[in-house]
Structure formats: C-alpha cells, structure tokens
Amino acid sequence: QVQLVESGGGLVQAGGSLRLSCAASGHTFSSYAMGWFRQAPGKKRTFLAAITGSGGATYYADSVKGRFTISRDNAKNTMYLQMNSLKPEDTAAYYCAAGAYSAGDSGYDYWGQGTQVTVSS
C-alpha cells in the first residue's frame, strides 16, 4: 500500500513557476513508476508526465513538454513537478499517482488527494 500526498499548489501569475511535490509513504517507493495528472473543472483528468522507478526515463504530454519537468528523489520518497511559463489554461487540480510507467489512468494503482493550481492572467 502506498499513500501519496501532494503539496506546492497555489495561485501564481501567468508566466510564473511552481514546484509541486508528491510525498509517498512506505519502503517501496523506488519500485513504482510515478505520474502527474490534472483535472480542470468540468473536464476529464489528463496525463501530464511520468517517470520510471529509477528516474532514468521520463515521458511528457505534448501540452507541457518543454515547460514542465518531472523528477524524483527516491531517498526522500518524493516526486516533483517543476512547472515553468505557466498559463491560465494550466489551472486545475493536480494529482500524483503511483503504479506502472504509463500515460493512462488505468496504469496507476495509487492516487493522491490533489493540490490546486490557479494561474491568473
């Protein structure tokens, strides 16, 4: 069982940056691939980025490629999402997930409760 807690969300102006964190419980963090997703009001949850258990490979959705960077520190049981050049359309609840290395919801077994990111124009 893995418990995930996101933090780092907030209100930021367009063009600004935020770094989200996802802290995981348990002693098997490095055995899980991790992913970030987001969901805006009235819209489906969408994939943003994924990282393998070792951190050796990453994959991004086209919508955030070049602006967002996923990383992890297995010694701290924590994953990060550095978000730069934020746009109002990035406003959403952001979720981290643990499971298989995948761009699909179904690949992940564990989910955090989400953290809100609001980008003002």
Task: List descriptors.
121 residues, mainly beta, 4-stranded antiparallel sheet, 0% helix
Mean residue pLDDT:
96
Secondary-structure element series: EEEEEEEEEEE
Runs with pLDDT <50, length 5+?
Answer: none
Helix-strand category = mainly beta
Coarse morphology? globular
Radius of gyration: 13 Å
DSSP helical segment count:
0
Distance between the termini: 40 Å
What characterizes the major β-sheet?
7 strands, mixed
Number of strands: 11
Written description of the protein model:
- Strand 4 and strand 5 (46-51) form a beta hairpin.
- The protein has strands at 4-7, 10-13, 18-24, 33-39, 46-51, 58-60, 68-73, 78-83, 92-99, 108-111, 115-120.
- 0% of the residues lie in helices and 50% in strands.
- The radius of gyration is 13 Å and the shape is globular.
- The protein starts with a strand and ends with a strand.
- The chain has no helices and 11 strands.
- By secondary structure, the chain is mostly beta strands.
- Strands 2, 4, 5, 6, 9, 10 and 11 form a 7-stranded mixed sheet that branches. A 4-stranded antiparallel sheet has the order 1-3-8-7, with no helix packed on it.
